[in-house]
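During the reporting period, we have paired protein sequences with backbone structure tokens. One record among many follows, to show the layout:
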Amino acid sequence: MKDTYNTIIKPSKETIFKKKGSKFYGYAYPVFSEDDVKNYLSILKKEHHTARHFCYAYQIGIEKPKFRANDDGEPNNSAGMPIYGQIQSFDVTNILIVVVRYFGGTKLGVGGLISAYKKSAQLTLEASDIIEKTIEEQFQLKFDYDKMNAVQRIIKEESIDIVSQKLEIDCTYIISVRKKEADIIFNIFDDLFKVDVKKIQ
């Protein structure tokens, strides 16, 4: 079971690719929603207020990712899809890549545009800090104080992350575990007398 994915956690450095006078500025951003995408596009449009094309592609999600590619006025599939192709090639998710084009006076043709947007996206991804992250699952544990030592021992032995804890009349922990270890950890707590464990969706 694959329980890792590649992503970026900070924006990339700006890249620039030139072809027949046209300039292509490339940017990569970590995104988790369409609002994030809109925010970054809005920032770039202020920064490059004389540019005419802000072509982009993004992919959000891990196990069932969704994507979108936008040509922003360039011929159909000449910009957004070549950018998205590089996202797939580098196997990254939760990422937005925007290529801002300044027209240089010479038309590149559809083939020229495809190769230029692809190259710009490639350079942008090469300039990004791509990291591998693990897919985590979260469980809620509820138990009485007399079970605290037993629960803590398992958490320590299995190197489990405690996301949050609430100590009131009884104890409530939210824990995070790697996906491929999730079933084993669930069963360990499920077998523990008077400890209520449930998966958080």
